[in-house]
């Protein structure tokens, strides 16, 4: 199915933005962006959340029309009638979110809307065969008759990419494709992208993860506040320079200082904890003021283990809280004890996207805002004022819906919401997923401040750098078990990967071959 | 995207006007349009007497629909309300006929308590099966719809249950026909039920939890809300509302028949949807619902007054209205 144009020798950009701008109402979110995408190059677009990356992608892929300026393909100005029109011209967008039907099979999803037929009937055998090929060309092996719901997020992402690439493509736009991938899966994806590039496909790559951008990009364009700050060759730009261009200030001190907590008393002691189907025989302890990391591949059972501990899932085992045995049957019990869990799924489990900030902020603590049966809106409003200041939640207006906030501000709102419970232990799952670097720094500082104030924090993250940067100690999970603990100087990506994958370093390096 | 801007008051006001939730205003605009239409068709339509009469007749559906607003806001659905009304009416009448207590007034008072108890229990049954059994509310209430109806027919021996005591009838009748400070008592009951319901839904933490559960059950769960308890409670409230509606309904006819409450679920759900409550949950509009019930009755009234369309087609018209209301809601939401 892939129709790859021969390498374009004439140096004509396959896709070009000529001074495009986009305004929503009176607000111009993108101003005079000019850039070119050449065949056979990976052009990365980086910028903080709200810098205009998504808008730019939508303009280039026909989802939006520019207010000013033009988009050109092969030097010909074009005006897309819509995303389907753009696809017909060979522009494919791989969405950040997984847009697949969970109950259908891999093959059914890959061919959804363009099923192969034999007479009146769908030709399942042929679609299955081609799906195997499509997935294999991405370096993976997935049974085409598997239901999407049974696949890990990473594999779903691969299926989604395979589906996108079924369309004849000349330009493929990846919108934060690695946001939910682990390093090894990321490496596999980067290899796929390099293969595409080597076939002459032009790649537009959007990501927050700067080391990854450095590893994959040929050219890098930095956006800030809707303006194009710079377009440079990747070889001229170190990640730290990228970060500086993105935020307009020095980012060398991303991670805050850590205090020594080795002598502090244990506040939480979990022994032989099982969460059926997800975690087996897990034992760990947490000290006062400690930041404990949980590393591991997606699907290793980290989220489920901690959801089990706080009573969000059925789990069995011993939990001692400040030395006393406790049992959390529901999440209310653990909340009452002062343990809160912030879900990795901010949009699905953390916030009510269709409700306003105030409703979201006080949802878990409404009892504190009632007098008799009545909710005291005034006090809710005061609390929101305080949260907006304390957590630096940037909302254009106070009556915005939570769904209208950027990812970073949603995370801050979720933090504010859970901190109203005045917890002594905070469990944060993927604290910075899909969040720009400026906000990341704020969240790291917030976590460090919590620990300094004597609270204990558990951080689950797939970003190893982040765990290494902020944690005192990191536990690594693999296939439902805690398989290793790294502290101090041993906290390196290599060490974590060894535990997480169970392969020796040499083999791990094989997987990540090509990673700069 | 995340900048803070300050506005002058006037700009804020204009923006507020523009932002005004259209789905919230639409039912009242539609009501106004119906007034205009009615006035054109028959000058008597706009008379206070006629409007109060229509409002009185809309009371059963309005009260039931207020309960349905809770259920639907929490992401549920109750198809059993019509049958439940028949069951509550049947049980209440059997109790009133039993003459278990001396004195008509005492009998009536206890009868009211019995009715509310039966309604609440029937609602609790729905809510419990739905939450504990984790079954779609559509299926559960479809089942209980058949059960409640069938039990009523059995209680009535296939016929009807009428109030025997004429003195008690005379005592009970003013609940439907009487007036208080110039307004029919059913109108007062709508107002009280509406105010109470609006208070519960908008001002209490239970109401906030209802909206949260309807908006996203997972978020509610992760926020430590008793999701099952909240959902079950909405069905109990629905049952209580059905019972209140029955208490207003019985004095009107003095009997329960096998067809009592037929298609009330259609009318109640229609009223809720016309009123701007989202069928997927997360938005609840008590006053919109009452406005919707009023509109349904007005449409019937206009049909009677006008003779353009046969009143036998009232069900068809109401069915059409719910579909149009959904279309309008969808369009307004898209524009948002």
Oligomeric state of the chains present here: heterodimer
Radius of gyration of chain A: 24 Å
Which ranges of chain A are low-confidence, i.e. pLDDT below 50, for 5 or more consecutive residues?
1-9, 505-516
In angstroms, what separates the terminal alpha carbons of chain B? 18 Å
How do the strands of the widest beta sheet of chain A line up side by side?
6-9-10-3-11-12
Give a count of the beta strands of chain B, DSSP E runs of length 2 or more.
Answer: 4
The portion of residues forming beta strands of chain A comes to 25-35%
Overall structural class of chain B, as computed from helix and strand content, comes to mainly alpha
The number of distinct β-strands of chain A equals 24
Shape designation of chain A = globular
Shape of chain B: globular
Order of SSEs of chain B: HHHHHHHEHHEEHHHHEHHH
- Helical coverage of chain B, percent range: over 70%
Q: How do the strands of the widest beta sheet of chain B line up side by side? A: 1-4
Write the layout of secondary structure elements.
The complex is a heterodimer of chains A (516) and B (336).
Chain A (H helix, E strand, L loop, with lengths): L14 E10 L2 E11 L4 E5 L6 H8 L7 E6 L2 E3 L4 H6 L2 E4 L11 H5 L6 E2 L2 E2 L1 H13 L16 H12 L6 E5 L7 H16 L3 E5 L3 H7 L2 E6 L2 E7 L5 H9 L18 E10 L3 E9 L3 E6 L5 H8 L6 E6 L2 E3 L4 H7 L1 E4 L3 H5 L6 H6 L7 E2 L2 E2 L1 H14 L16 H13 L5 E5 L7 H16 L3 E5 L3 H7 L2 E6 L2 E7 L5 H9 L3 H7 L5
Parallel strand pairs in A: 3-10, 3-11, 6-9, 9-10, 15-22, 15-23, 18-21, 21-22
Antiparallel strand pairs in A: 1-2, 1-4, 4-5, 7-8, 11-12, 13-14, 13-16, 16-17, 19-20, 23-24
Helix pairs in contact in A: 7-8
Chain B lengths: L8 H11 L2 H20 L6 H10 L1 H15 L7 H18 L5 H29 L4 H19 L4 E3 L3 H7 L1 H4 L1 E2 L2 E2 H19 L1 H11 L1 H6 L4 H27 L1 E3 L6 H11 L11 H21 L7 H22 L1
Antiparallel strand pairs in B: 1-4, 2-3
Helix pairs in contact in B: 2-15, 3-15, 4-10, 4-11, 4-13, 4-14, 4-15, 5-6, 5-7, 5-13, 6-7, 6-13, 10-11, 11-13, 14-15, 14-16, 15-16
């Amino acid at each position: 199915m892939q129709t790859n144009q021969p390498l374009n020798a004439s140096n004509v950009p396959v896709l070009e933005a000529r001074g495009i701008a986009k305004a929503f109402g009176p607000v111009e979110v993108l101003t005079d962006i000019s850039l070119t995408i050449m065949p056979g190059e990976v052009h990365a677009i980086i910028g903080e959340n709200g810098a205009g990356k998504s808008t730019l992608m939508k303009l280039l892929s026909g989802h939006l029309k520019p207010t000013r300026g033009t988009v050109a393909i092969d030097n010909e100005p074009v005006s897309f009638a819509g995303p389907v029109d753009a696809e017909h011209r060979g522009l494919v967008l791989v969405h950040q979110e997984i847009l697949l039907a969970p109950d259908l099979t891999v093959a059914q999803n890959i061919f959804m809307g363009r099923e192969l037929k034999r007479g009146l009937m769908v030709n399942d055998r042929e679609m299955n065969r081609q799906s195997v090929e499509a997935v294999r060309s991405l370096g993976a092996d997935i049974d085409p008759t598997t239901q999407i719901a049974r696949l890990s997020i990473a594999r779903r992402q691969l299926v989604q990419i395979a589906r996108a690439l079924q369309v004849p493509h000349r330009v493929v736009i990846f919108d934060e494709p690695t946001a939910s991938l682990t390093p090894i899966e990321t490496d596999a994806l980067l290899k796929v992208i390099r293969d595409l590039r080597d076939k002459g496909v032009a790649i537009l790559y959007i990501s927050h993860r700067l080391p990854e951008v450095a590893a994959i990009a040929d050219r890098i364009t930095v956006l800030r506040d809707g303006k194009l700050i710079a377009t440079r060759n990747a070889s001229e730009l170190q990640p730290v320079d990228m970060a500086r261009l993105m935020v307009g200030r020095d980012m060398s001190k991303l991670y805050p200082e850590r205090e020594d907590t080795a002598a502090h008393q244990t506040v939480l002691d979990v022994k032989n904890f099982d969460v059926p189907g997800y975690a087996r025989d897990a034992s760990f302890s947490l000290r006062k003021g400690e930041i404990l990391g949980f590393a591991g591949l997606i699907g290793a059972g980290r989220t489920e283990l901690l959801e089990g501990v706080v009573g969000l899932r059925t789990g069995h085992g011993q939990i001692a809280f400040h030395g006393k045995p406790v049992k959390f049957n529901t999440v209310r019990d653990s909340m009452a004890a002062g343990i809160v869990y912030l879900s990795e799924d901010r949009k699905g489990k953390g916030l009510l996207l269709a409700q306003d900030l105030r409703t979201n902020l006080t949802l878990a603590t409404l009892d504190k805002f009632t007098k008799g049966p009545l909710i005291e809106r005034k006090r809710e409003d005061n609390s929101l004022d305080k949260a907006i200041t304390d957590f630096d939640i940037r909302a254009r207006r106070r009556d915005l819906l939570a769904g209208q906030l950027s990812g970073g501000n949603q995370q801050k709102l979720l933090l504010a919401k859970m901190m109203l419970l005045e917890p002594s232990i905070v469990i944060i799952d993927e604290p910075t997923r899909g969040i720009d670097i400026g906000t990341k720094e704020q969240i790291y500082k917030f976590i460090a401040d919590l620990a300094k104030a004597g609270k204990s924090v558990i951080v689950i993250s797939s970003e190893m750098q982040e765990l290494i940067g902020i944690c005192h100690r990191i536990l690594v999970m693999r296939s439902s078990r805690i398989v290793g603990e790294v502290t101090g100087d041993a906290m390196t990506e290599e060490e974590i990967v060894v535990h997480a994958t169970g392969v020796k370093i040499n083999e791990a390096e094989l997987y990540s071959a090509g990673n700069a | 995207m995340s900048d803070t801007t300050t506005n002058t008051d006037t700009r804020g006001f204009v923006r507020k006007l523009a932002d005004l939730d259209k789905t919230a205003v639409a039912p009242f605009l539609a009501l106004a349009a119906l007034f205009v239409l009615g006035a054109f068709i028959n000058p008597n339509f706009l008379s206070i007497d006629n409007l109060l009469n229509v409002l009185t007749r809309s009371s059963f559906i309005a009260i039931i629909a207020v309960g349905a607003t809770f259920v639907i806001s929490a992401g549920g659905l109750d198809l059993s309300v019509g049958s439940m009304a028949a069951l509550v009416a049947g049980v209440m009448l059997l109790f009133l006929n039993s003459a278990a207590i001396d004195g008509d007034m005492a009998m009536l008072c206890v009868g009211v308590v019995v009715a509310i108890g039966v309604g609440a229990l029937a609602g609790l049954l729905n809510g419990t099966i739905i939450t504990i059994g984790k079954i779609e509310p559509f299926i559960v209430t479809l089942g209980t719809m058949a059960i409640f109806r069938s039990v009523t027919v059995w209680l009535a021996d296939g016929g009807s249950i009428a109030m025997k005591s004429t003195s008690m009838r005379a005592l009970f009748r003013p609940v439907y026909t009487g007036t208080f400070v110039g307004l029919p008592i059913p109108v007062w009951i709508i107002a009280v039920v509406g105010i109470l319901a609006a208070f519960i839904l908008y001002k209490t933490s239970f109401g906030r939890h209802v909206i949260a559960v309807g908006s996203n059950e997972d978020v509610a769960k992760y926020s430590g809300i008793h999701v099952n308890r909240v959902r079950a409670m909405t069905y109990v409230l629905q049952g209580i509302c059905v019972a209140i509606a029955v208490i207003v309904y019985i004095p009107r006819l003095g009997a329960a028949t096998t067809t009592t409450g037929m298609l009330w679920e259609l009318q109640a759900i229609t009223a809720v949807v016309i009123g701007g409550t989202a069928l997927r949950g997360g938005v609840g509009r008590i006053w919109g619902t009452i406005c919707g019930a009023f509109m349904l009755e007005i449409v019937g009234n206009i049909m009677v007054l006008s003779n353009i369309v046969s009143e036998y087609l009232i069900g068809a018209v109401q069915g059409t209205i719910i579909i149009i209301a959904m279309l309008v809601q969808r369009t307004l939401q898209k524009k948002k």
